[in-house]
């Protein structure tokens, strides 16, 4: 694992995420969210979980980001925010970050370097999904079906 | 220099805090959903980092949980954005400060 790549990816991801959280224009914020998720996917590639990185790109950037952009276009009337940031939210977020960082830095057993592992192949992931994780997989399928039917029912026009 | 587990956890904590900032301090419903998505993604980074830094041999549990968590967040985004559209039809706004009909 490369230290320089880690620094570049983390700076890119955090800058894009901060832009997504603070830009006043909603469309720009959604596009910055796409950039932040792309950075996150490259973290997964760096950590050796290529399948999860690809799934993140397909699902988040291919589906969720398109859904967010469509929603922005459908609710276009007030896609700009006139008020600035709410400062109590900033304070709470800073406090949470300080607390988490303090806890992580205080724990000595976390300052370890990655061990050498054999690469996780897609075949192994598929076998695990079809053997040990078959019930969670079915439940996720049911959940996705229910969520999509529920989303359709929610946005269906009411008959008058 | 190889990054340690602490470095990944701190980046993930920063991403989570930025998501929390977006969810707490914005007034637009879609911004709040973007913040929640970011917090979920930060949790996924933790799962993958802990899986990668565990001593071998280990089962791919962290990878599996990350895959399931991505699927659940996709379902959450679909339902959340449908709710934003449904509420927008009634109130003609996406500003969450004006959704105050249930306020006592």
Task: Provide a descriptive summary of the structure in words.
The complex is a heterodimer of chains A (160) and B (104). With 160 residues, chain A is mostly helical. Chain A has 6 helices and no strands. Chain A has helices at 3-22, 26-46, 50-74, 87-106, 122-130, 134-155. In chain A, helix 1 (3-22) runs antiparallel to helix 2 and helix 2 runs antiparallel to helix 3 (50-74). The longest helix of chain A is centred in the middle third of the chain and has 25 residues, at 50-74. By secondary structure, chain B is mostly helical. Chain B is elongated. Chains A and B meet through helix 1, helix 2, helix 3, helix 4 and helix 5 of A and helix 1, helix 2 and helix 3 of B.
Strand residues, percent of chain A: under 5%
* Overall number of strands of chain B: 0
Shape verdict of chain A:
globular
What structural class is derived from the secondary structure elements of chain A?
mainly alpha
Number of beta-strand segments of chain A: 0
Q: Could you tell me the mean pLDDT of chain B?
A: 88
Into which percent range does the helicity of residues of chain A fall? over 70%
Which quaternary structure do these chains form? heterodimer
Q: Which range best describes the helical content of chain B: under 10%, 10-25%, 25-40%, 40-55%, 55-70% or over 70%?
A: over 70%
The unreliable regions of chain A are none
């Amino acid at each position: 694992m490369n230290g320089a790549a880690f620094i570049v990816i983390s700076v890119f991801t955090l800058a894009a995420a901060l832009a997504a959280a603070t830009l006043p224009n909603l469309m720009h914020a959604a596009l910055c969210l796409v950039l932040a998720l792309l950075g996150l996917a490259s973290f997964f590639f760096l950590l050796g979980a290529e399948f999860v990185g690809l799934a993140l790109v397909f699902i988040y950037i291919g589906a969720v980001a398109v859904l967010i952009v469509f929603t922005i276009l459908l609710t276009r009337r007030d896609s700009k925010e006139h008020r600035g940031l709410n400062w109590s939210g900033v304070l709470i977020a800073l406090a949470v970050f300080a607390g988490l960082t303090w806890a992580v830095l205080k724990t000595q057993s976390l300052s370890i370097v990655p061990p050498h592992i054999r690469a996780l192949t897609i075949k192994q992931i598929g076998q695990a999904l079809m053997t040990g994780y078959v019930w969670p997989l079915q439940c996720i399928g049911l959940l996705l079906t229910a969520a999509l039917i529920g989303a359709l029912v929610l946005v269906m026009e009411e008959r008058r | 220099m190889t990054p340690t587990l602490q470095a990944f956890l701190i980046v993930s904590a920063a991403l989570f805090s930025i998501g929390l900032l977006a969810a707490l301090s914005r007034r637009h419903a879609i911004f709040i959903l973007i913040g929640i998505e970011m917090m979920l993604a930060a949790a996924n980074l933790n799962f993958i980092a802990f899986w990668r830094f565990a001593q071998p041999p280990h089962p791919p549990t962290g990878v599996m949980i990350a895959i399931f968590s991505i699927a659940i967040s996709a379902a959450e985004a679909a339902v959340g954005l449908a709710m934003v559209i449904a509420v927008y039809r009634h109130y003609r706004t996406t500003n969450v400060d004006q959704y105050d009909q249930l306020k006592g």
